[in-house]
Amino acid sequence: MKNKFSTRLCALIIATLSFAPFILHAQETIQYLRPNSQLGVNVFETSKLDTVKFTGLKVKVGGNFELSFQTLHDQNTALPLTKTGFTGNVNSLIPLGHAFQLPMANLNVDVQLADGVRMNITQYLASRHHEETWVKGGYIQFDKLPFLHSAVVDDIMKSVTIRIGQNDVDYGDQHFRRSDGGNTIYNPFIENYIMDEFATELGAQIYYHVGKSGVFLMGGVTNGILDETVNAPTKIDSATHQVNKFDAAFLGKLGFDKQLNPDFRLRVTGSFYTLNSGNSNTLFGGDRTGSHYFDVMENQAVANGTTLSNANDYSAFSGRFNPGFSEEIHTFMGNLFFKYKGFEFFGTAENATGRAITESTNRWATQYAADFIYRFPANTQNFWIGYRYNTVTARIVGVADDVTTNRSAGSFGWFLTHNIMMKAEYVSQKYSNYPTNNILNGGQFSGMVFEASIAF
User: Fold this and answer.
1) Does pTM top 0.85 for this prediction?
2) Distance (Å, rounded) from C-alpha 364 to C-alpha 399?
3) Residue 130 phi, psi (nearest 5)
């Protein structure tokens, strides 16, 4: 198999050089943009501060690269199990060694189209989940509407942001801190949450900032799916006994985010996402790049018996939990973030209910997480130490008792520059109440992962 990372790297270099005349003039002239560097850490929604003067069309080409070394070990107590179509015990675990993971890379293009109007397109050049380049999505963001030539509209847009396109679903705040393929610069840990709430869906999100109070509101609507289709639905919904519908999904957020004094920032948000009937919703499984814990709690017999096409890894989401709410989903998340000098806390409480199209009643899943980070020294905060606790409890198909997954992770990191980061993490994850015929019965894994990351 050819070296996919080298191919994607060459593609990025060629693309960067082709845009060089624009890039050299545009790196700091894109309005309302989250920095792709240490400066973007703890940035959530883009600011309404108009700090960049518009001087014409600008193009910024950037990239993200990460390389990791893994020393994880896993074990379980599941009973041996054979399954038709596979050879051997499908409950045995893949033997793991100490080795480098597949490097991942992203290509980001941001364009200033007009005063207060910009667009973004992001591509996954190399990732665990897919061999070929994938377009993550693209969107256009309006912080001004100069083409309407209206003083009234101009005044309204001082408080409003409109984002339209195939875009990150702004449900909760954790997706602003997660690793996204090669983009790991915002995440103080190696992996994302156990129940990773992230998807890109086609739709629109509108933000309203209430003056300088720190209060903001967001309302949005999407098509509720990652992979669009114009085909009419044909499957029968087990709950309604009717052909299922491709309904729109609705989401919203209410928050407060303000620097209360030079030392203390407080952010509190509540958000929801709801879909009554969909075509394979992926809010908890929309990542096209894969987990940054490779092959933990996975089975070699299943891997050997799986035919891969465009997928590089037969099970790319090791260590995560997807509740499988693909037909109907109603979920709420509350987040608390505060930062006092070098200390920061980020907390999450989440409750989700939903089902697949083959289920007649809803199941549920809850998730709680807490990040404790200390950044130092005071003048640069380019070093940090951190601890995360993350737990998920859920009802899964075919199991009478609730199952639980607990994770503890400690990290240490260093920004060598704003664009170069190194971090190390020790993680321990355990599975409880899975039945004896499930590969996760008595499951646990632990060990170290080291990562280097570049963003520009």
Assistant:
1) yes
2) 13
3) -140, 140
